[in-house]
Amino acid sequence: MSGERGPFLFKDIDTPGLTGIDVYRKGGGYRALAEMLGRRPADECIEVVKASGLRGRGGAGFPAGLKWSFVPKASPKPRYLVCNADESEPGTFKDRELMEKNPHLLLEGVALAGYAIGAHVGYIYLRGEFDYIQVILDRAIAEARSAGLLGANVAGSGYAFDIHTHLGAGAYICGEETALLSSLEGYRGQPRLKPPFPAVEGLYACPTVVNNVETLMNVPAILINGAKWFRQWGTEKSPGTKILSVSGPVKRPGNYEIPLGIPLRQLIDDYCGGMREGFRVKAVIPGGSSVPPLPASKLDTALDYESLNAEGTFLGSGGVIVIDEQTCLVDSLWNIIRFYEHESCGKCTPCREGTYWMTEILERVEHGQGRAGDLDLLEDLADNILGKSFCALGDAAAMPVQGFLKHFRDEFQHHITHQRCRANRRRAEIEARFGERVHA
Amino acid sequence: MSAVVVPIEEAPATLSPQARREVDEVLAHYPNPRSAILPVLWILQREHGWISPARLRLAASLVELPEPEVFGIATFYTMFNLKPIGRHHLQVCMTLSCSLMGSDRLFRHLQSKLGIGHGETTADGRFTLRRVECLAACGGAPCMQVNFDYHENLDEAKCDALLEKLK
């Protein structure tokens, strides 16, 4: 991997000055916008993206073109394009880097997707902590307006499109698309019942498409180069590249753009340079903390939507969290479930109460006070949340509980039976180790 | 039955000319004023570091909503400070990736160095310390946001050096 950081989205990401419109245009930026808007039928844009097989990069993996096609053609209401930049799934930090380094690509993607569905306004909903990214994006929006690439007459096409950024204020739930829309409308960020789906009744009860940052950044090149070009990477059902955020005790944590379908082992060993000295893989969470983990014996699993599903887990948001052998998994799961308990919006009972009780049980197991039936109780609680909560947050808390118990039940049972941890070293020792480490 | 009278102790808050311009600009982004509630709260918080009851009332009038509803919205989100905080808001990520790389240790270090716990402010008003959830900086774990600035790959020595700079 010399020079270039990735085959496509990351290819030129570190180009100096890329946040400025001149450098962006020099590299072919805004060409898709100029060629498509008002010059090619919107339906054609949808068809090309459909044919490309681009799947949503936010977590659910839903085909993007198909989502766009659900917007009713005949609706007299205004339509909206909303970009979900609420990146909050633990382990995921790709959208932050993409927006920080290549803001104009996002604007171009938003404008093109907006054109495809007949919208004239796009909103980029950023998580509250991304205040500095709002500054970067607002500057890029001002540049694009000055250059006539946003506004009343985009690139001389006669088509009007403008973009506004909107800063959230600290709520994981706002990454759920209907909660995001509630928040954008000025309500508490709580999810809404589906159907109606946002494509029919979304923002202000108007047809709305919500797409993730990375998804939208794929769009300009797909429209310029065609579906076949995009399919040079990845697999039949998971075409394209995917940015994976790798964290944990690997030698080089960070964002990596991979062609979908490479083995997990290759990501850790080649891209990330392997584990830090003295550490070995115990488990890997492949798609953000809401998906079930894979044990070290499954490192040959291919990183694509279907292969991970076959192993009972998901590519999700691409947040790959590597857990080493010295780490206590009871502590790790307690940490994960505590997060979902904190972020549960409180709207529905299974999630609000279930995450609370799972946290309580994991806390006592971690502290050597676990009771004989606690693991069954955890599974019963997870079963009563999964598919029974109002939105996917409940599922996000239930799936890791089921996955950790499926693969590592022995370790949990040991905690209860012996009232202590059997991870090779205790946390204090691990921390002492990290205290000596030298960062790059 | 006697009516309950809630005294309003604070004088009504007013907007600075700069804030007024910013509010007008964000109101124009949406088809209705209600949508501007988060941007308006942010504008008010940026000016003073926190949102007093009088400024919460002001926010409600700017977006044409009842004050209790705005209170309900402001308290739903974690980032609005409805009480004064220190000049430097130390927000240490405690979620899994940071925890794997030693955030618990880092938090304990800050606690003992500053003599304050989660949600507390030093007596001189310099620092407020808080545990927060995932900041989307897991590749640079452990990490901390100071106000809006990200600081990644932290250890005790780096933390100490950073605190020195934050007056």
Written overview of the protein:
The complex is a heterodimer of chains A (440) and B (167). Chain A has 440 residues and is of the alpha/beta class. Chain A folds into three domains: 210 residues, Rossmann fold, CATH 3.40.50; 84 residues, Roll (Ubiquitin-like (UB roll)), CATH 3.10.20; 90 residues, Up-down Bundle (de novo design (two linked rop proteins)). In chain A, 43% of the residues lie in helices and 11% in strands. In chain A, the strands form two sheets. A five-stranded mixed β-sheet of chain A has the order 6-5-9-7-8, with helices on both faces. In chain A, strands 3-2-1-4 form a four-stranded parallel β-sheet, sandwiched between helices. In chain A, strand 2, helix 7 and strand 3 form a beta-alpha-beta unit. The longest helix of chain A has 27 residues. Chain A is globular, with a radius of gyration of 22 Å. With 167 residues, chain B is an alpha+beta fold. Chain B has two domains: 60 residues, NADH-quinone oxidoreductase subunit E (Arc Repressor Mutant, subunit A, Orthogonal Bundle); 78 residues, Glutaredoxin, CATH 3.40.30. Helix content of chain B is 42%, strand content 11%. Chain B has seven helices and four strands, in the order ααααβααβββα. Chain B has a four-stranded mixed β-sheet, with helices on one face. Chain B is elongated, with a radius of gyration of 19 Å. At the A-B interface, strand 3, strand 5, strand 9, helix 13 and helix 17 of A face helix 2, helix 4 and helix 5 of B.
